[in-house]
Structure formats: structure tokens, C-alpha cells
Write a structure and sequence with these properties.
alpha/beta; 8 helices; three-stranded antiparallel beta sheet; Spore Coat Polysaccharide Biosynthesis Protein SpsA, Chain A; nine-stranded mixed beta sheet
Amino acid sequence: MKISGFTFIRNAIKYDYPIVEAIRSILPICDEMVVAVGNSEDETRDLIQSIGSSKIKIIDTIWDDNMRENGKVLAVETNKALAAISPDSSWCFYIQGDEVLEDHQLDYIHDALKQFEKDEKVDGFLFEYLHFYGSYDYVGASNSWYKNEIRIIRNGLGIFSYKDAQGFRKDENKKLSVVKLDAKIHHYGWVKDPRSMQQKQENFNKYWHDDQWMTKNIIRTDEFSYEDHMTEIRKFEGNHPQVMSERINRLNWKFKADLSMKMKKLKDRFKDILLKFGIDASYQNYRLYKRFKK
């Protein structure tokens, strides 16, 4: 059984992405790691090479900056990395540049991949998510954050990255049949130096919106204000992946968390009501086949 990791990245240093930590968190389980490095304004390619692993296979890509609808360019770049995976791989392990797998999961994940390797009803595997906000001490608590995502897919089925690269589909946009794992991925996309976060906001939203929308909705300022964009959060009581230790230790900004804030959209309040009756109305970009317990 061969496992290939894959990811894409551009301007990792400029926008403070933990891409090295992301790659290192899954690298031990992978036989190869394909990294699609986009045309960057910094030393992103050198950063990836500095990991120093013979497993890493860099492909250089050019982003289409005119593709400014629904984050589609992110799926395009994901698919470039996916296409470069060795055809003899059984499974493809996807990780984005701001995601890090929790510690002590790899043996369990390997067991799951081995068990379902011959089960043709399984297209992929589903992971749980924790979304950090403002600092490494707080996570999003509202239903507006996605709870689960597919991060391992079977190779050779023509599976492709979907919409803005948050999920995968096959055939004519058919949802994948997945096994849910008791494994968590930490999403750190909303934990950056406020200056880097502001730069990301001014750039990243261009992949969803035109200039008119950007002018109207993105405030030009030096630093992003986490407090002004905060929804419901809670204190994080767990442990961060070991590969994140150095990054966490050099945190150099203050985040004034307000745990009393319960600002939610109407649809999220409705979801909360349904949950009290045991109904999960969250969007599911997959078909649940089985669960694999530890």
C-alpha cells in the first residue's frame, strides 16, 4: 500500500502560512509528498526545499489571477498537485497550507487505510476539524465553521477537487462515499500576525470577488482587527501538534477574546435549535459509509 501526500502553496512567507508544519504533520505516513508551489513573491520554494526530505516532489505552477469567482483557482491548483501523484499510489492524503494534523494519529490512520484498501465502496476518509481564531488559545464555537472535511481520497478514480478546494467529487459532481475517522485537523487560517492577516484579506478575497466588491467590503488598514470580526469562540483546552511548538512560542501579538459574545447568523441559530433535537443540519459534502473507531 502506497500513500501520497499532496498540497499547494503560494506566498507562504508573505502571508505567514504554516505550510512546513502542515507537511511535516503527515510526512511520516507518506511515501511521497507532492507540493505544487505557485509563482510567489517570496522564497516559498526555498522554504519547501528546506524541509530536506527526499519524499518531497515540487512542481512549479502559475496561478491564473484572472480566475476570480468562488475560489475556483484553489481547486485548480489542488488538482495540479493531485495529477502529479504516482499512479501506483493507493491513497492520496491532502493537507492545506494552514492545516496541521494532530499528534499520535498516523498509526491509526494507516490501519484504517489498510483495512479499507480493498473495499471499493470507500472513496475516501473524513476528518474532524478545530478552527482556531485570533490566537492559539481559542477555537470557533459557532455552526458557521465546517466540522468535517475529506482529506484522504482513493487514487485512480478520477476524483477531483471541488469548488474552492474544501472538498472532493467524482464523475459528474457525485459526492464521495467516505469513512469517518476519529482524527482531528487543526485549522490555523485565522491565526496570523495581524499585519499578515490583513495582507491576506486584501489578496485572498480576490479569488472570490471582483474589484468593486473588494473596494466596498475590504477595509484598507495596516493590521487586521480580530475583535471586529469575531463570532462565538471558546477556550481551547487541548494540545497543539508538536510541529507547531516553535511557531506558537514566537507569537507576538495580543488578542482580546470576548467569550461572552454570542453573535450568530440566523441560520446558525436555527442549526443550534435543531441540534437540541438531535438533528445536524450542517452541510455535508460527502456520503457517510462507515465510521472507523480507534
